[in-house]
Design brief:
By secondary structure, the chain is of the alpha/beta class. The chain is built from six helices and eight strands. Helix 4 crosses helix 6.
Length: 196
């Protein structure tokens, strides 16, 4: 449905789906969610999928992942489903030590997702610029960026030469960048680390 008004870059990050439960809950996989309170994020695309996939669970609507994980931690909900990276980040940030995060398989399409930058269709030059920026990143640069949010590595080797200096923008793209020295980004601060 978003394709009607949006342009997507190539994916820059894959995400795995998981559920967070209290450690002593006895919930081991999605089959155990029957009759359980499932915290669902209001306005998120996955909520409708989860409502259909788990019709026998009791939906508890929450505003964001922080609220959903807190609801599970304090016994107001039995589980919440989101990406491993986002849930790990919030669990560590909020010190929710009574939660366990378990990777789950919902279906082939939903079990792994991909992160993209999205622009409106009336910004094709910005889309092109973002696409070129993503394509310019080496695997080492991807790893350094990911390690800031998802994986705290003891030692990340320095990238010898960034390829950002070798980006080839068209004259039209260069003019667009000069006319737009600041680019506004909209993200959900409650969906860190992915929307930072």
């Amino acid at each position: 449905e978003r394709e009607a008004y949006a342009l997507y870059t190539d994916p820059f990050q894959s995400t795995a789906i998981a559920m967070a439960v209290r450690k002593e809950s006895g919930i081991e996989d999605t089959q155990d969610l029957k009759g359980k309170r499932l915290a669902l994020l209001k306005g998120y695309g996955t909520t409708e999928v989860l409502l259909k996939k788990f019709p026998d669970s009791i939906p508890i609507m929450v505003n964001n992942l922080h609220e959903g994980l807190s609801a599970v931690s304090f016994g107001e909900a039995d589980a919440v489903i989101d990406t491993i990276g986002s849930m790990s980040y919030v669990v560590i940030q909020q010190t929710l030590t009574n939660l366990a995060i378990k990777r789950i398989e919902i279906d082939e399409q939903s079990s792994n997702g991909y992160m993209h930058f999205v622009t409106t269709k009336d910004k094709p030059l910005l889309h092109s610029i973002l696409q070129k920026g993503i394509a310019s990143l080496s695997p080492e640069e991807h790893a350094r960026i990911r390690s800031k949010w998802v994986l705290q590595m003891e030692h990340t080797p320095p990238v010898e030469k960034t390829r950002a200096h070798t980006l080839k923008f068209s004259e039209e793209e260069k003019k667009w960048l000069q006319a737009h020295p600041s680019i506004r980004f909209t993200g959900d601060p409650n969906y860190l680390p992915f929307e930072a």
